[in-house]
Automatic annotation (TrEMBL):
Pfam families named among the record's database cross-references: Phosphorylase
Species this chain originates from: Mycolicibacterium chlorophenolicum
MF terms in GO: glycogen phosphorylase activity; pyridoxal phosphate binding
Entry keyword annotation includes Transferase: yes
Renumbered residue ranges of the record's region Disordered: 1-29
UniProt name for this protein: Alpha-1,4 glucan phosphorylase
Record flagged with keyword Magnesium: no
Single GO biological process annotation from the record: glycogen catabolic process
Enzyme class: transferase
Catalytic activities: [(1->4)-alpha-D-glucosyl](n) + phosphate = [(1->4)-alpha-D-glucosyl](n-1) + alpha-D-glucose 1-phosphate
Cofactor list: pyridoxal 5'-phosphate
Family: Belongs to the glycogen phosphorylase family.
Keyword terms, alphabetized: Carbohydrate metabolism, Glycogen metabolism, Glycosyltransferase, Pyridoxal phosphate, Transferase
Polar residues: bias regions: 11-29
């Protein structure tokens, strides 16, 4: 690709000097897209931003200098984009998300600006290797997993599709913990990602908003004689914004990610200083700044923390105040135009307090009447649900909520009263339904049901895969669907092919460019063109060669991080995702142990060799998930060191799975494990990343697997397990795991090996809790799906033996993965929910 519009067309070479001070016109140094201009820019930043003499320069200094040079190149596009939508008064999407898992930025920005080759050359001229420089970058781990990464993919697509948009979130000082493995157990280490600085963000201390907290409300009569409510907070803090440019691929559009950081309000501190209470002021400062300190892990049993609610309210009020202030500045737009100019999407319920907060701002701060405020609110918000697990649906104990946000509780009561009146009118004499739908839950102490608040306050509600959206309508939001069927829709998730194909799989990118021509990167359904190469033996050989090289790369990484050696000719069978019982990493372990058992009891048995790779973090307080990690590493330690079996199998637990090392994982996989209990995984997005990179899937009919199988063709997908209906039926009858053990001697032997201490030096206490759980109270029906899974794995092995058959299936998977581009998903959001069109940016 050629660089996006060259801002300054000075002849290259003319002004470029290694010494930045002589680099010629500043414009060229800041904006030139040639290798020479970039070299000059890097040299310039080494002197003026990094301030290190040549004698002490290390790779990370070059990284920072290049990052700054690249950021410079986005800056004009960034300002032009924002100025354009302000001038043209275009409709803007705001994506509100407590998490943005952006991943390393440098490679992505080079790709999207079209200056990878130029940067490589520039660094080579400076005696540096681009790949080594790229490797210096850490990642902002500001998310738990799927939901946070989805937000990041969507920002990439919004910019690439030239849709005006802002991502709003929290600038956590500490992201998701770093996972280390010690004696096979997960150990959590703080992720202090800001210690090395963050070259991508620009802090805007002048762009800050006040955030109230606690206290009480008062009624008063305003100058016009109207009765109004005032919130008298107990505390006030403020949010300051840090903006990061989000450059679209091959376009000038450069959107914004705004992350809020909490600060103490100076006047409070000063006041305390004057009255001599300096230490109290410092204390307050510490407390205020705690708000954006740390990302909460999901699946924490103790997630009902006051601070988490404060985090949510904090970023929501800052974002809404920002939106309203821009709105009122923009050509003096009236508030009544809000839904015509803004679409605000709630990424799960985490920002759903926004419904009450917008009402508060419109009514208390901008003096609108209730009906108008409510109409604007509902027309502005959309809500995406990401889970059906009842225990994962967010609720806040009424006491905590009322103490923290007294005005919001009043507003929620009022919203609820009006809403339930509507329910009663539609469904007379159905008080049970009214109780089920109320925004206030009664079970286990009163609480605010955030999913209900989000649904009532949004004109559009969607799930994240076809099956999930259907189940939403028939289970957790059934009553709401019956009341407002027109609000409900589906947008199947997608992933960005820029990061998850072009950037992470350069070998495949090259082969695609050569075979089907460029263009696929922004129009992923063009991968269909690969189908005509399926029968070409030379092409299949090259396909395999790409995969083989990717596997060598991963094997090297595995060796350097775990000491385990993998043979890149083996099948790489991979499961990477958060560790959770519903995702059933332990089912994959049962298969591994079954193979181990077969090899040990049948000397002379030959099986196609496989490397089993796992990666993923367990929530620190989720003891069963942590024990599952121990189970993987224990089985691995035994298998990998046993000469009877390690000729045929190895087991790896890859520590600290994150976006950066994911770049090595997806392109190297032959088999993608998507084995959750049907009905539990809302969508999955890793499944899509594997498919795009040519892995075959073994999976249940869950989440987006259903659509993956539809697209790939049933013959190119290894299906197993109960369907969602069957899962429900088994549960209704009363699931008896023991009955599966009784009928299946191999399963009995596998469980006995695990519980008996074979993998734990004879200690039968370590893994027994996992096995007990499977046999006595497993809501995820692992044993019910065991036989079907293990038998399907035998077929996987048979198919693997025929290179050509496997390659054909692999090519077809990539060829048919076009639907799973986040570009398709974002187009659907724009067309069906947001009404946001493209706006091309001229420089
Ligand atoms: C909630 C309250 C308190 C603390 C933490 C949380 C919390 C944080 C993050 C709850 C959930 C999450 C993340 C959920 C998530 O990643 N869900 C996944 O979203 C993906 C994108 O839609 C889907 O593909 C996955 O199926 C879904 O599990």
């Amino acid at each position: 690709m050629t660089p996006v519009t060259d801002l300054v067309n000075a002849p290259s070479g003319q002004s470029a000097q290694v010494n930045g001070a002589q680099a010629g016109p500043t414009g060229q140094t800041r904006t030139g897209m040639t290798a020479d201009a970039l070299r000059a820019a890097v040299s310039d930043h080494l002197v003026y931003s990094i301030a290190r003499p040549p004698a002490v320069l290390r790779a990370e200094h070059y990284y920072r200098a290049l990052a700054l040079a690249v950021r410079d190149r986005m800056q004009k596009r960034w300002m032009a984009t924002t100025q354009d939508w302000l001038d043209l008064s275009a409709k803007v999407t705001c994506y509100l998300s407590a998490e943005f898992l952006m991943g390393p930025q440098l490679g992505n920005n080079l790709l999207n600006l079209g200056i990878e080759d130029a940067a490589r050359q520039a660094l080579a001229d400076l005696g540096q290797d681009l790949d080594e420089i790229l490797d210096c970058e850490g990642e902002p781990g500001l998310g738990n997993g799927g939901l946070g990464r989805l937000a990041a993919c969507y920002l990439d697509s919004l910019a690439t599709l030239e849709r005006p948009s802002i991502g709003y979130g929290i600038r956590y000082e500490f992201g998701i913990f770093k996972q280390e493995i010690a004696e096979g157990w997960q150990v959590e280490k703080t992720d202090n990602w800001l210690v090395h600085g963050n070259p991508w963000e620009i802090d805007k201390p002048d762009a800050s908003y006040l955030v109230n907290w606690g206290g009480h409300t008062e009624q008063y009569t305003d100058v016009t004689g109207k009765l109004r409510v005032r919130w008298v907070p107990q505390r006030v803090l403020k949010g300051v914004s840090y903006d990061t440019p989000v450059q679209g691929y091959g376009v000038n559009t450069c959107n914004t990610l705004t992350l809020w950081s909490a600060r103490a309000v100076e006047s409070f501190a000063l006041d305390a200083f004057n009255t001599g209470d300096f230490y109290k002021a410092v204390d307050e400062e510490v407390v205020s700044e705690t708000v954006s300190k740390v990302l909460y892990p999901n699946d924490e049993p103790e997630a009902g923390k006051r601070l988490r609610l404060l985090q949510q309210y904090f970023f929501v009020t800052c974002s809404l105040q920002d939106i309203l202030s821009i709105h009122l500045q923009r050509a003096q737009l009236p508030l009544s135009a809000l839904p015509d100019k803004w679409a605000i999407q709630l990424n799960d319920t985490h920002p759903s307090i926004a419904v009450a907060e917008l009402m508060r701002l419109l009514i208390d701060e901008h003096q609108l009447g209730w009906d108008e405020a409510w109409d604007l609110t509902v027309r502005t918000f959309g809500y995406t649900n990401h889970t059906l697990l009842p225990e994962a649906l967010e609720t806040w104990p009424l006491r905590i909520f009322g103490e923290a946000l007294p005005r919001h509780l009043e507003l929620i009561y009022e919203i609820n009263e009006r809403f339930l009146t509507e329910v009663r009118a539609r469904f007379p004499d159905d008080e049970e339904r009214v109780g089920r739908m109320s925004l206030i839950g009664e079970e286990g102490g009163k609480s605010v049901r955030m999913a209900h608040l989000a649904t009532v306050g949004s004109h559009a509600v969607n799930g994240v895969a076809a099956l999930h959206s259907e189940l939403l309508k028939s289970s957790v939001l059934k009553d709401f669907y019956e009341l407002w069927p027109e609000r409900f829709g589906n947008v199947t998730n997608g992933v960005t092919p820029r990061r998850f194909l072009a950037l992470s799989n350069p070998g495949l990118r090259g082969l695609l460019d050569e075979s089907i021509g460029p263009g696929w990167l922004t129009d992923l359904v063009r991968l269909r063109g690969l189908e005509s190469f399926v029968d070409d033996p030379a092409f299949r050989a090259r396909w395999r060669e790409v995969k083989r090289a990717n596997k060598s790369r991963l094997a090297e990484y595995v060796h350097s991080t775990t000491g385990i050696e993998l043979d890149p000719t083996w099948m790489f069978d991979v499961q990477v995702k958060r560790i959770h019982e519903y995702k059933r990493q332990h089912l994959m372990v049962l298969h591994i142990v079954a193979l181990y058992h077969r090899l040990k009891t049948n000397p002379g048995l030959v099986i196609p060799p496989r490397a089993f790779l796992f990666g993923g973090k367990a929530a620190p307080g989720y003891t069963m998930a942590k024990r599952i990690i121990k189970m993987i590493t224990a089985v691995g330690a035994t298998v990998n060191n046993d000469p009877d079996v390690n000729r045929y199998m190895k087991v790896v637990f890859l520590p600290n799975f994150n976006v950066k090392n994911a770049h090595l994982v997806y392109p190297a996989a032959n088999l993608s494990e998507q084995i959750s209990t049907a009905g539990k995984e809302a969508s999955g997005t890793g499944n899509m990343k594997f498919m795009i990179n040519g892995a075959l899937t073994i999976g249940t009919l869950d989440g987006a697997n259903v659509e993956i199988r539809q697209e790939a063709g049933a013959e190119n997908f290894f299906l197993f397990g109960l369907t969602e209906d069957q899962v429900e039926a088994v549960k209704a009858e009363g699931y008896r795991p023991q009955s599966f053990v009784e009928r299946d001697p191999e399963l009995a032997a596998v469980l006995e090996l695990l519980a008996g201490g074979t993998f734990t030096h004879g200690d039968s206490e370590v893994l027994r809790p996992v096995v007990d759980n499977l046999i006595h109270h497993d809501p995820f029906l692992v044993l019910a799906d065991y036989r079907s899974y293990v038998d399907r794995q035998a077929e996987v092995s048979r198919v693997w033996l025929d290179d050509d058959v496997w390659s054909r299936m692999s090519i077809r998977n990539t060829a048919r993965s076009g639907k799973f581009s986040s570009d398709r998903a974002i187009r659907e959001y724009c067309d069906e929910i947001w009404g946001v069109g493209p706006m091309s940016v001229d420089l």
